[in-house]
Amino acid sequence: MTDVIKIIDHSDRVERLFEPYREALGDDYLAYRGHVYRVITFAMHFLDGDEEARPMVETALVYHDIGLWTEHDLAYLEPSEAHALADNEKFGWGLDPQLLKDAIHWHHKVFPYRGLNQRIVEAIRKADWIDATEGKIRKGLTKAQVKAVQDAIPSYGFAEVLQRLAGDLGGNKLSGNLRVLRRVFKW
Asked: Which of 31, 133, 180, 183 can pair with 156 through a Cys bridge, CB separation 3.0 to 4.6 Å?
């Protein structure tokens, strides 16, 4: 893995995948889009820029949290998986359904993922942790690498969006965050 991190702030595939979900995302679109591109950037860095993995990484990450907005529910992993799997089949993308499901299902795993599809699932898991913690957890990246990505791809208040959703969908921020811990985080 090189020290230089290649910023990925646009992909035709990502933009096409987002299109059917723009209305559901509403005012949160830019914040979620930025999160997705930062996580893609980190994940592709962990995968040494493996272009064969990129369609899977991009697809999994567009869908990984989408259930928050489509289902208005803090238990969003299964709905996110279902949307990704249904669209994969409907549009004939030909992505490995088990890998697509695993990448979404395990992206909040606290400890390293070991098992089928480990290389891609683990890259996505680590990348999401970096962005979800706003770089407080870096999973082996330097502060400079994380800052380069954060500077290049604005957050549009993504952390605040998550806290607002926790409060709106969970009754209040505390109970919402506790629900996320119980239903979304995997050990």
From this structure: 31
Give the pLDDT of residue 52. 98
SS3 annotation, the chain: CCCCCCCCCCCHHHHHHHHHHHHHHHHHHHHHHHHHHHHHHHHHHHCCCCCCCHHHHHHHHHHCCCHHHHCCCCCCHHHHHHHHHHHHHHHCCCCCHHHHHHHHHCCCECCCCCCCCHHHHHHHHHHHHHHHCCCCCCCCCCHHHHHHHHHHCCCCCHHHHHHHHHHHHHCCHHHHHHHHHHHCCEC
* Reported pTM: 0.95
What is the phi/psi pair of residue 46, to 5°? Answer: -65, -25
- List, in order of start, the domains of the chain with CATH numbers: 12-183 (1.10.3210)
Above 90 in pLDDT, residue 175?
A: no
